[in-house]
Amino acid sequence: MQSWNNYEERQTMKITRVEKSDKDILKQLIALFLHDLSEFNRDLEMNSSNGLFEFDVLDWFFEKDGLTPYFIYKKDKIIGFILLQSGPFSNQKFADYVLNSFFILKKYRRQGLGKEACKAFFTQLPGRYAVSQIKTNTPAIQFWRNIYESFYIEFYEKEELEEGHEVIYQYFKV
User: Fold this and answer.
1) CA dist 76 to 5, 7, 49, 88, 150, Å?
2) 159 pLDDT exceeds 60?
3) CATH number for the domain running over 13-173
4) Residues forming a β-bridge with 14
5) Most buried pick, 32, 33, 88, 160, via CB within 10 A?
């Protein structure tokens, strides 16, 4: 197990805010994320006119305060993204931040890079968080439980019904 307090950010992993000029890159990554997620959420459908899974509120992450997109870099390569909600887009009573989406490209999974990205991100932006997974998305649930165990993060978990889907929420502070 690794200690959260003794973490020193590795020089090869960085989390940076997505600039508007890179929105198309994020759009492509989100399409891959939604494709993966469609295995667990049958309501997600590809847009037949362009062949992409689309995130209908992507523009909001570049226009509204409280919605922030981040790229996850390994050395100089983008390997994933984080979509973060805060302020008016989070329940301030329970969480400063809501991790709307956390995605690592398949090529980079199962190498500890997701864990490394979480360490870098939470070190960069500590606070109270809410994270959710669709109840049938066992790999995502297991990933987050491993994060909590690895870094000795105490969390509260509850199930909710969200847009017709059973969702598991975890609340924690880093």
Assistant:
1) 26, 21, 33, 33, 26
2) yes
3) 3.40.630.30
4) 73
5) 33
